[in-house]
Structures are given as structure tokens and as C-alpha cells.
Amino acid sequence: MTAQQTWINAMLYEKGEWIAKEIKNHLEETGYVLVRDFPIGKTNTYELFQNLCTAIGHPIGHDKAGTIIWDIKSKPPSSDRFGVITYSEHNHEADLHTDSQYSEYPEDYFALLTLKKAACGGGLSYLLSVADIVSELNESADGKKVLDIIQTTKYPFIVPNVFKKKSGDTPEFNFGYLLKGGKMRFRVDTIQKALNYDASFCTPEQIWAFDYLVHLVRNTQHTRRFHLEPGDLIFINNKTMLHGRSSFTDYDRHLLRIRMNVRETLEVRHRE
């Protein structure tokens, strides 16, 4: 981690409400915070992780069963032309994105706890703030035009197979603004696959703006890159930060994830 990045030692976890308050402050002001030396390899690691997340927000389920803690391990790639597997299910590079951009209400925060990093040296984490994206777009006339388009027109997102409401081969879609009120929902492949299915979902002007935004996100100098070590627990604001990671070949890499909303009422809306 660089000097620009902020962190908290997990020894402060014993102070309970204090560390939760500090984490929430960082999430709103900086967009992320790293908790180092979180206790892993213990019988109550999962319980401690969930308890801390519950002090930060309202954990929400990842699936129809309402599972709170998601094991992040790679799986074989999908052969479905239009289906999308989540980045948590494969080992190739994950473009900078926000989580659950395909849902009606993407979660406010999420947390990743590293149990085992990739021994191959891959799995490098990426972070990019929405504020930096907006600032860079405002530097040119074309960028300002892109800002107007992505804030006033909705884009399609194809729903990953694991999160579809109905089983079968028929794709499901949700639509939303890429940017609204300084908050972003964004993932390249869920939009591209939606457009592959039906190009009429977007106008040529929207596609131009999307391509411009993708190029900026992939080439900006503002992206932070770092390795998460075992015991590193990172909290990320899913509305003000994009995140991603490099590819890896070590299939034993293992992280845990919990998603959270600021208010419990939003959890109900998310599930509906």
C-alpha cells in the first residue's frame, strides 16, 4: 500500500464501535479503508468478519438462500454466449467495475477478507475513485459530453447467470444510469453482452460515450494497484470506487466477501 492509502490495524477491533465508526468515515470520505492483521485461520474468523460488517452496515445475501458470506474462488469459465459469470468465479483479469451494477439497487458497501493470496504473484488489486474519473472527463469538451450522456440516459446490464431470477437460457437485463449524483454503476462486459444481444438498447451516441469512458477507465493514471496480504480486510464504497484485479494462476487463492447497505430498508428493496 502507498502513503496515499489509509489503513487501520485490526488490534483496534477490540474497541468495537470505535473501529466501526472509523471505517464508515473512511468509506464516505475516502471511498475505502484497509484493516490489517484481521484474525484468520481461527474457528470464529467467519463470525468475527460478519460481526464487524454488521457494525458497519446491514449485510445482504448473495443468493436466493440469503447467504451472507461469499467464498471467492475461481471456477471453470462459462460457455454460454450471453451468460456472464461474476469476477469472483474466474481467474482472469477483472476490469475495473462496481459490484451488482446489474441489480435494481447495487449495494452501498462491500468487504473483502484475504485468507490466501495467489502464490503466483497475480491477483493484484485495482482501485479507482469516481471523483477522479469525473475530474478527468471534465478536462475536455468530449469528456463533458460523455458526462452528460452517462448521467441522462440509461444503459443495459445483463444479469450474471448465478443471480438470474429465473432459470433457463433466456437472458435477463436491468437498466440504469452509469453516473448519477456522483455515484457510479459500471462493468464493461455486462453492458457489452447486453448490446451483443440487442444493439438497439443504446443509441450510437450512447455507445460512443461508453467506449470513451471505457478507454479512460482502462488508461487513467489515477488507478491504485496493490496486493492484499493474508489477514488484509478491505472495505470499499461500491458507489464511489471502481475496483478490479489482475489475472492469477493459483487456484488456491481464497477471499471472503460480504455486501452491505447503509440502511436496512434498502436491503428489502434490493431483494425484491
Poorly predicted runs are: 1-5, 266-272
Helix content: 25-40%
* Relative strand content: 15-25%
User: Gap between N and C termini, in Å?
Assistant: 38 Å
| Helix count from the secondary structure assignment | 7
Computed CA radius of gyration, to the nearest angstrom: 18 Å
Q: What average pLDDT do the residues reach? A: 86
Largest sheet: 7 strands, mixed
- How many β-strands, per DSSP? 15
Structural class: alpha+beta
Shape descriptor: globular
Order of helices and strands: EHEHEEEEEHHEEEEHHEEEEH
Word description of this protein:
It contains 7 helices and 15 strands. The chain has 272 residues and is an alpha+beta fold. Helix 1 packs across helix 2 and helix 4 packs across helix 6. The longest helix has 16 residues. The radius of gyration is 18 Å and the shape is globular. The N terminus and C terminus are likely disordered.
